[in-house]
Write a structure and sequence with these properties.
Layout lengths: L6 E5 L4 H16 L3 E2 L8 E6 L4 H14 L5 E6 L1 H4 L1 H5 L5 E4 L32 H8 L4 H16 L13 E4 L1 E2 L10 H5 L3 E2 L2 H13 L4 E5 L14 H11 L6 E4 L4 H6 L1 H9 L3 E5 L7 H6 L6 H14 L4 E8 L6 H14 L3 E6 L7 H6 L6 H17 L3 E4 L1
Parallel strand pairs: 1-2, 1-3, 3-4, 4-5, 6-9, 9-10, 10-11, 11-12, 12-13, 13-14
Antiparallel strand pairs: 7-8
């Protein structure tokens, strides 16, 4: 008796961590002899990655789900939406849901599969993101926010023709070393989705690294929801894994990109990082500073001072004139003043970041900031005014940026 192969259509969306999850799910279905199809119309299952970092991203994810509900395939929703906005998702009557921290539970939907999710070898490449035109149509709305999102995206692409528009997708081989986050940032709802820090055992990371080196890979992106926190839960550290990786790759010529390095770990491991920057091994780092004002950083529950991260990043910059530094900043955090946001733009220009992702503050239900500062939000017109201040400052210094 010939058994019909299940057809699965996977929709990649969100940051590089979620696209890597989609890649892992793709491998899961392949190993269980499913047919991955580019046609949603012919699929038995449609697997959709979602983002809910902001209210805009939540609405965009919900619109994406509605788009695929018209097909006959059963929808499986994963990513951040199931944990961050379960009530919104409930209204769409999508019963098959998996949070980012619970991807292993996909086995419950496919009890007949021989290969379980935890046994799937780790992937090192991202699942393709959705086409730009698809994103544009899905996100379309008549607003100043939408205009500046499109405007900065087009401007960025013109200045960086060979760089992907998605600020979190890079060319190279992804090496995931952890998931989850130990921080308690007051504005962030993502922790609901990713959970507490869960470091991958160091031997597993090193074995994976050795295997990729043996296959000829040389440009690595070290990835986690909070990469610098690696090892805090397993009696290790970010410093240790970098040292151990350097022992493994001593016969190879490699480069590292460090993704999602929380500023407090950049400061803590400055000496170690400088060693690899000076050697030309670390070629790119993303350090999300969020604000350059200590009062705002304190309200955000960000555990560092602006003077310390400025000093550390300037040391990084002086160590290599080819090092690429990227960051995220938030505009319009509740009670933030014009002068305080100018302090943020000054920190960006002082460090001479190569690329900045500017996020409009989004009040997420259940976060500390939403609970304590709900009546002190900054007006949209004020946020746009501050964004224009940032544009002027960054254009003057030839710093690339996008707005969301």
């Amino acid at each position: 008796m010939i058994t019909k192969k299940l057809k699965v259509h996977i929709v990649g969306s969100g940051c590089d961590r979620r696209l890597l999850d989609s890649g892992q799910l793709s491998q899961y279905f392949k190993l269980n002899h499913c047919l991955l199809t580019s046609s949603a119309g012919s699929a038995d299952y449609i697997v959709i990655s979602t983002c809910a970092m902001s209210d805009v991203q939540e609405l965009t994810s919900l619109k994406l789900i509605k788009k695929f509900k018209k097909y006959n395939g059963k929808l499986i929703i994963h990513g951040c939406l199931p944990h961050i906005a379960p009530e919104s998702l409930k209204k769409l009557n999508t019963n098959l849901q998996i949070g980012s921290k619970d991807l292993h539970s996909i086995d419950q939907y496919f009890p007949e599969f021989k290969v379980k999710y935890v046994d799937v070898p780790r992937v090192s490449g991202l699942h393709p993101d959705r086409p730009l035109i698809d994103k544009f149509v899905n996100k379309f709305n008549l607003s100043a926010d939408f205009f500046y999102t499109c405007y900065t995206a087009a401007k960025f692409k013109l200045k960086n023709i060979h760089t992907t528009l998605h600020p979190r997708i890079r060319k190279g081989t992804y090496l995931k070393i952890s998931s989850g986050c130990p921080e308690q940032c007051s504005y962030c709802a993502i922790k609901k989705a990713v959970g507490n820090l869960k470091s991958i055992p160091i031997k597993t990371c090193l074995d994976n690294y050795q295997e990729l080196l043996n296959k000829g890979h040389s440009n690595f992106i070290l990835l986690g929801d909070n990469t610098g926190s690696y090892g805090m839960d397993i009696d290790s550290s970010f410093k240790e894994i970098l040292e151990k990786m350097s022992e493994v790759d001593r016969a190879f010529k490699v480069t590292w990109t460090i993704s999602e390095l929380h500023p407090r770990f950049a400061i803590l491991f400055e000496e170690e990082m400088l060693k690899y920057i000076n050697a030309g091994k670390i070629i790119e780092i993303c350090v999300p500073i969020q604000s350059g004002c200590d009062r705002v950083l304190n309200l955000m529950s960000r555990s560092y001072r602006s003077v310390d991260i400025r000093r550390t990043l300037q040391h990084f910059r002086l160590a290599s004139n080819t090092l690429k530094l990227n960051t995220d900043i938030i505009v319009g955090f509740p009670t933030e003043t014009d002068d305080e946001f100018v302090a943020t733009t000054k920190l960006v220009t002082d460090v001479k970041f190569n690329q900045v992702q500017i996020f409009k503050y989004s009040q997420r239900t259940g976060t500390t900031a939403a609970n304590t500062l709900e009546n002190k939000t900054v007006a949209d017109k004020e946020i746009i005014k501050r964004f224009k201040i940032a544009m002027k400052a960054f254009d003057k210094q030839h710093i690339s940026y996008t707005y969301q």
